[in-house]
């Protein structure tokens, strides 16, 4: 397979042009890429152009004023033809994803990465009908991707994952590469765990909804904007870092079936840190 370099400027195909696809399209355009867009919904072109114009205005305020050209296509093959990268944003329906990705894989030029914006589906399932699945990746953004930098990447081929990460980094995104696939990837699982506890606190009558939200926004949320939980506890451990925090019982108690109680509990926690 011939690798297409993603540091060149060319045309990007955006397939699926709802709010997510429009946001991606605006980001690509603002960085100087031409965009060929396709969607099956009647009248999508007018809605897409309106959404893209709004997003480009926001990006312009941030200093991104690229002059990529937007083209809307009436056939998927026209959108993919000549594309150096494909961003797919079809509905979160496995059968639909499998069919769309198989068609994109069949039509995209050799070496072109096909990236799916799925938020929860397993890559191994949605690429099942592709002839060259190694060039098809999951690239899950946080909405809206033209403003929120996170992109979670799941790739079957490590080199393809690295190429995709370099491409998104060029767009000012923060790619995170998963070492193995997981339903919901990383960020949504973390967010879901937090929300489950927030709902539990309401159900237990601990505090009001407003105060629970305030507790997060005015406390740990301020830290989390700059650092994740591992770094937070590492700094909280002072000069001793996470080892000191673990010995002091700082991090939340892990699952008992993985980390049995005992004097070496801290050591067992630390075995799972690089």
The major β-sheet equals: 8 strands, mixed
What is the straight-line distance between the termini? 34 Å
Low-confidence stretches: 254-263
Strands, count: 8
| Share of helical residues | 40-55%
The helix-and-strand class reads alpha/beta
Percentage beta strand: 5-15%
What's the arrangement of strands in the largest beta sheet?
3-2-1-4-5-6-7-8
Order of helices and strands: EHEHEHEHEHEEHEHHHHHH
Mean pLDDT comes to: 88
Put simply, the count of helices is 12
Shape: globular
Radius of gyration from the alpha-carbon trace, in angstroms: 21 Å
Could you please describe the fold and organization of this structure?
The chain is 43% helix and 14% strand. The chain has helices at residues 19-30, 44-61, 76-80, 94-107, 123-126, 158-170, 187-203, 209-217, 220-224, 229-236, 241-247, 265-270; strands at 11-15, 34-38, 70-73, 83-88, 113-116, 136-141, 150-154, 174-177. The chain has an eight-stranded mixed sheet with strand order 3-2-1-4-5-6-7-8, with helices on both faces. Helix 1 (19-30) packs across helix 2 (44-61) and helix 10 (229-236) packs across helix 11 (241-247). The longest helix is centred in the first third of the chain and has 18 residues, at 44-61. It starts with 10 loop residues before the first strand and ends with a helix.
What labels describe this entry?
single chain, 274 residues
């Amino acid at each position: 397979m011939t690798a297409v370099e993603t540091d060149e400027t060319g045309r990007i195909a955006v397939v699926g042009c709802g709010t997510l696809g429009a946001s991606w399209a605006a980001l690509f355009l603002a960085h100087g890429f031409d965009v060929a867009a396709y969607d099956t919904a009647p009248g999508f072109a007018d809605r897409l152009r309106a959404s893209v114009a709004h997003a480009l205005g926001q990006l312009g305020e941030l200093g991104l004023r690229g002059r990529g050209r937007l083209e809307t296509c009436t056939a998927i093959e026209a959108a993919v033809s000549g594309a150096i990268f494909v961003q797919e944003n079809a509905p979160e329906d496995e059968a639909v994803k499998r069919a769309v990705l198989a068609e994109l894989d069949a039509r995209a030029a050799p070496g072109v990465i096909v990236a799916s914006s799925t938020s929860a589906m397993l890559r191994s399932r949605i690429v099942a009908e592709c002839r060259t699945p190694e060039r098809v990746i999951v690239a899950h953004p946080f909405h809206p991707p033209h403003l929120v930098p996170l992109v979670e990447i799941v790739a079957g081929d490590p080199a393809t994952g690295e190429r995709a990460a370099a491409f998104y980094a060029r767009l000012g995104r923060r790619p995170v590469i998963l070492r193995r696939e997981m339903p919901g990837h990383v960020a949504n699982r973390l967010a879901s765990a937090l929300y489950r506890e927030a709902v539990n606190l309401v159900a237990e009558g601990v505090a009001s909804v407003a105060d629970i939200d305030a507790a997060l926004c005015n406390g740990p949320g301020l830290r989390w904007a700059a650092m994740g939980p591992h770094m937070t506890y590492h700094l909280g451990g002072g000069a001793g870092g996470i080892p000191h925090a673990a010995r002091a019982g700082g991090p939340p108690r892990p699952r008992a079936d993985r980390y049995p109680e005992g004097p070496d509990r801290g050591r067992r926690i630390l075995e799972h840190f690089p």
